[in-house]
Write a structure and sequence with these properties.
This protein has one domain. About 75% of the residues lie in helices and about 5% in strands. It has 14 helices and four strands. Strand 2 and strand 3 form a beta hairpin.
Length: about 300
């Protein structure tokens, strides 16, 4: 409960509450909803990359698995959508646990390549299993329904995804301040030193990998029911790179930083969309300059500079 009343969390609640008043049209509402969905997955990836220091450039695979399990369970097997979402979380958690032990023995670029391979495998399965997934053409997913109540309309969807994002933020902040969070940060600094201090490095890496995948699964399931249509592109290389970029640009190990990173990565191309033919160039330039001049990410770097001025 203490976390809920932290000034930063209260500001986040205020911002999330004010955003709907900017919904001048359906397009702005759609962007806000997708920002929240991306933010959920980014907060989860930050647990792995920012807290534990484990690189992943294939995390969109878990987003896609959550989306497809939820979509297939609800649309083809008749499972209630909420139960289908839970089924996606359970399957992703089990899968992440199975692959975490062998994959997390790797370090650095070899770990990054292994996670990239995971994304490629998932993408190939989704493309080739046409009977289940619809193949490259994708599949239709029904709306999110709880009993007789069907979630529809931008305001209702925004309320749901904003609440889930807020829960993700609170969970992340609580973990950061907990003994487990301190152990993860020690692991990030030096695995050998963490082991000397009594940290079960292997166990912590597996647990945080599973938790991070669960966040991605929830984001994927909500995305599937919101958009009503999914394709294997969800597990593609670019979605994974976008997630990693959100973490790096916003600020690794900074929960609010990665949310800001999600806003920039998702929102900036929309703002630059009117500059036809140059939007991606300007977007790439903005990200490059951010990494050069704000190497620790936007939020941590600015916080450090302002704290120095205050002293």
């Amino acid at each position: 409960m203490k976390t809920l009343f932290r000034p930063s969390v209260l500001v986040a609640i205020l911002v999330l509450a004010v955003v709907p008043f900017t919904f001048a049209n359906g397009y702005i509402a759609d962007v806000a909803i997708r920002l929240c969905l991306a933010g959920i997955a980014a907060v989860g990836l930050n647990l792995l990359m920012g807290f534990a220091g484990q690189i992943s450039i294939g995390h969109a695979a878990f987003v896609a698995i959550g989306a497809y399990v939820s979509g297939i369970s609800a649309s083809r097997w008749g499972l209630p959508p909420l139960a289908a979402l839970v089924a996606g979380v359970v399957l992703v958690a089990v899968l992440a646990y199975i692959i975490a032990k062998p994959i997390l023995r790797l370090r650095g670029y070899t770990l990054a390549m292994a996670t990239l391979g995971l994304g490629i495998i998932v993408n190939m399965v989704l493309v080739n299993e046409v009977a289940w997934t619809g193949g490259p053409d994708g599949m239709v997913v029904g709306p999110l329904q709880i009993g007789d109540w069907v979630l529809s309309g931008p305001m209702a969807w925004y309320a749901v995804v904003a609440c889930v994002l807020l829960i993700a933020i609170i969970v992340s902040l609580n973990l950061f301040a907990s003994p487990a969070g301190r152990a993860l940060r020690a692991l990030n600094g030096s695995e050998v030193a963490a082991m000397v201090m009594g940290v079960d490095v292997s166990s912590f890496k597996v647990k945080i990998f599973v938790l991070s995948a669960v966040f991605a699964s929830i984001s994927g399931s909500l995305t599937a029911h919101y958009s009503g249509f999914i394709t294997p592109e969800l597990s593609g290389f670019m979605p994974s790179i976008e997630l990693a970029t959100m973490v790096v640009v916003g600020g690794m190990a900074s929960t609010f930083g990665v949310v800001l990173g999600a806003c920039l990565v998702i929102g900036l191309p929309q703002v630059l969309g009117g500059i036809e033919g140059f939007e991606m160039i300007l977007f790439g330039l903005a990200l490059m300059l951010t990494i050069i001049f704000l190497p620790k990410g936007i939020v941590p770097t600015l916080a450090q500079r302002f704290s120095k001025r205050g002293n």
